[in-house]
């Protein structure tokens, strides 16, 4: 018998037209490694509260409303998040999972979820298999945690993953646990790893994982390689950085070079210089133009593609030369999500996956959680697109 995660309850008891899964960042609690690298008590909020407008009309800072500046070690917070998502048609969260040769980082929210049984809300994992660098301070070359791969580690990793995939709340597609990998192209022995993982899960769980690669603007090569390795689908992650324009000024190019070459104390002084606040330094993208471009785009062949949409994007609290997608709007977002739902409408319900970036990427200005300006508007837009119902969007001024 085919098993899948429970259908989310909604106010009007309508069944969503697609299975909406929101990427979930577990960065909102302190860990010893971040204390060493960034300072005592560092969490995602440390960057968020530093947000300032860089030019007239620039929306910063993004500050939380209903849920406040939460700590993911608090069970009540995780339950509130799940209820808010469920009420607006979101089926589950896809937790970023950080594994570095047997070392896990930011794992407590998932561990507490498993041990306590709360919240009773579907979830899946996305292995964020990238090395950690000082990206948030603009120093990408300064590696903090190196990602590496080996046959032994692939075996150890799936042995750790299998009990998580067996959780009754774990999201399944046609009875198989959904498992995402953020950078499949970074894994040299990909086919061998996939075979190891699927073989182990068949023996231990009685089902192979529904394995999905994440295609980003940093992805290289064709997804045909992923198909040949045994993947079942591709998430077209958005925003896709290859759509972002390059730095459009000499100042922007100079800062990009300085970010890589200058000693940190000089670079920090440069960041604080007033001339860096000019609009021309940043990559500015219009939200409507981005949405229109996506709607008119044609997915690549080889594997089933699962669309991904985002409500907003602004990484200026992490970047000196930032990418800011301005003029984001709940009605445009609802239209985009409705178009994404249409792309999967001809598939069996279990395979109608649509991904939302993100539930809580606050430092990237990319969150469905309510903020001070928009309140519940983007969550209401999510419900309207998934349920095909008309609502009015009222933003908090």
TrEMBL record:
InterPro entries: WbsX. CDD domains: Glyco_tran_WbsX. Pfam families: Glyco_tran_WbsX. Signal peptide: none annotated. It comes from the Bacteria. This is Lipopolysaccharide biosynthesis protein. It comes from Lysobacter niastensis.
């Amino acid at each position: 018998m085919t098993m899948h995660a429970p259908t989310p309850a909604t106010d009007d008891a309508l069944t969503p037209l697609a299975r909406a899964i929101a990427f979930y960042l577990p960065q909102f609690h302190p860990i010893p490694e971040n204390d060493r690298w960034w300072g005592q008590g560092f969490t995602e909020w440390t960057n968020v509260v530093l947000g300032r407008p860089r030019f007239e009309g620039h929306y910063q800072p993004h500050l939380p409303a209903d849920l406040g500046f939460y700590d993911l070690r608090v069970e009540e917070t995780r339950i509130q998040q799940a209820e808010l998502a469920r009420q607006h048609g979101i089926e589950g969260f896809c937790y970023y999972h950080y594994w570095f040769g047997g070392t896990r980082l930011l794992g407590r929210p998932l561990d507490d979820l498993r041990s306590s049984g709360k919240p009773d809300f579907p979830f899946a994992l996305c292995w964020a298999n990238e090395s950690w660098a000082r990206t948030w301070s603009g120093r990408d070359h300064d590696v903090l945690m190196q990602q590496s791969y080996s046959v032994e580690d692939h075996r150890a990793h799936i042995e750790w993953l299998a009990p998580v995939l067996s959780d009754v709340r774990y999201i399944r597609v046609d009875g198989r646990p959904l498992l995402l990998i953020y950078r499949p192209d970074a894994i040299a022995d990909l086919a061998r790893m996939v075979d190891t993982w699927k073989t182990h899960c068949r023996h231990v769980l009685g089902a192979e994982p529904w394995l999905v690669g994440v295609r980003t603007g940093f992805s290289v090569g064709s997804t045909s390689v992923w198909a040949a390795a045994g993947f079942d689908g591709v998430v077209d992650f958005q925003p896709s950085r290859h759509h972002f324009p390059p730095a459009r000024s000499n100042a922007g190019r100079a800062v990009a070079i300085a970010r890589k070459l200058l000693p940190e104390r000089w670079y920090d002084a440069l960041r604080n210089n007033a001339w860096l606040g000019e609009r021309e330094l940043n990559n500015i993208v219009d939200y409507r133009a981005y949405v229109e471009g996506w709607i008119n785009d044609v997915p690549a062949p080889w594997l089933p593609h699962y669309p991904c949409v985002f409500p907003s994007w602004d990484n200026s609290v992490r970047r000196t030369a930032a990418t800011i997608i301005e003029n984001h709007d709940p009605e445009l977002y609802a239209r985009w999500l409705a178009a994404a739902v249409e792309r999967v409408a001809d598939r069996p319900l279990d395979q109608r996956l649509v991904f939302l970036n993100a539930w809580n990427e606050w430092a990237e200005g990319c969150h469905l959680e309510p903020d001070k300006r928009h309140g519940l508007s983007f969550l209401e837009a999510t419900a309207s697109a998934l349920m095909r119902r008309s609502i009015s969007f009222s933003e908090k001024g």
